[in-house]
Amino acid sequence: MTEDRSGEQPPRSVLVTGASTFLGGYLVTRLAANPDIERVVAVDSRVPTKVLMRRMGRADFLRLDIRRPAIAKAIASYDVDTLVHAAPSILDSVEHTAAIKELNVVGTMQVCAACQRSPSVRRLVLRSSAMVYGAGPSDPGFFSEGTPARKEPRRGYGRDLIDMEGYARGLARRRQDIDVSILRFQSILGPRIRTRMSAYLSLPVVPTAFGRQPRFQFLHEEDALAALEHATLNRRPGTFNIAGDGVVTLSQSVYRAGHLKLPVPAGLISPLTGVLQGGGLPGIRSENTSYLSYGRVLDTTRMRTELGFVPRYSSLETLDDFIERGGSEPVISSDTWRALEHQAVAAATRLQ
Fold first, then answer.
1. Least enclosed by CB within 10 Å: which of 11, 189, 288, 315?
2. Among the listed residues 197, 203, 108, the one whose alpha carbon sits nearest the alpha carbon of residue 159
């Protein structure tokens, strides 16, 4: 068994919440394949798919509600030293309701309380999101981990995540022997994971805010998994922005997918998206409208220098892989776009 560069042993017994979700389930799969980890425990109130259960291999699955004291019993029974709270990934595919808020906020409170009481826990990794920064016209060019949002979320998943991070930081203050790592993921895209952003960009006609050109960063699903695994295996306490290199505008995203923009007043993005999706994932909510109007870009310096993690995919490469393998059909082919581009360049030349 090797040691990380900080001199601390890799985890011996790891418990992962949210095991039925994409990130939680596939993280369990990766950890279970690591021979240096003695025990992996997968926890969720829902049973993972049969395919995912098979991939989990030697991991033990416990069906329990993290809002209940049973989470503390599980930590004690398996002598857990590292807990990865990946359950908030539910925000990618489920509408925000009072029940979901309770699962997120009360569940995280119970997890942190259980860790505080446990003599064995030495590390907590929380999957968070860049949604905590909010989005608005007066935002900085880049959000660093210490930059407060100009208009922080007051409801929805953004508000939940602010409260959840608060519980995690409170644990770090009360138990200074427990290393707490908070990973703030940018919008995740990939051929397998289903998120609001992937559903939005898959629309043949994409409602956009009239007169706005928001800038985005994307995080590939494989890099999201790799970042969680890296934080689990290495002692890197702190809060870290996680995103691929580079910036992609909304127009670039829509056009590279071969889809069409439909500029509308910002207030119509949410209802129009819901109508155009016609089921499946929930439509873009009003709380997401500011993000789709103004975008959000993160400073990832700490990700590289302190966390020691470098994503494999850039934002543009993530977008292109999602387009190529994600099953989204173009309305206008790439050949047509190139022909239109050549025509536009030729017309501009003639006018000079």
1. 288
2. 108
Cβ atoms < 10 Å from Cβ of 179: 21
What span, in angstroms and rounded, lies between the C-alpha atoms of 86 and 126? Answer: 6
Greatest extent of the chain over all pairs of C-alpha atoms, in Å:
76
Expressed in angstroms, the distance from the first to the final Cα of the chain is 68
Question: What's 140-204 look like in SS3?
Answer: CCCECCCCCCCCCCCCHHHHHHHHHHHHHHHHHHHCCCCEEEEEEECEEECCCCCCHHHHHHCCC
* Secondary structure class of 228 (helix, strand, coil): helix
183 pLDDT above the threshold of 90: yes
pLDDT digits (tens, 9 = 90+) for 129-172: 998 998 888 888 899 998 875 556 667 788 888 999 999 999 99
* CB-based contact 316:247 (threshold 8 Å): no
Residue for token digits 């109130």? 45
Sign of the alpha-carbon torsion through 336, 339, 345, 350: negative
- Residue 330's pLDDT band, with cuts at 50, 70 and 90, is confident
Match 């890799």 to its residue by tokens. 10
Contacts of residue 227, defined as CB under 8 A and 6 or more positions apart, other chains included, come to 183, 185, 242, 303, 307, 309, 311
User: Is pTM beyond 0.70 here?
Assistant: yes
What secondary structure letter does DSSP report for 126?
E
- Residue 4: pLDDT band (50, 70, 90) is very low
**Domains, the chain:** 13-328 (3.40.50.720)
Phi, psi of 264 (to 5 degrees): -140, 165
Task: Indicate the length of the chain as a whole number.
Answer: 352
Sheet of 179-185: strand order equals 60-63, 39-44, 13-17, 82-85, 123-129, 179-185, 238-242
Q: What is the mean pLDDT of residues 3-7?
A: 44
Q: Which residues touch 193 (CB under 8 Å, ≥6 apart)? A: 22, 23, 92, 221, 224
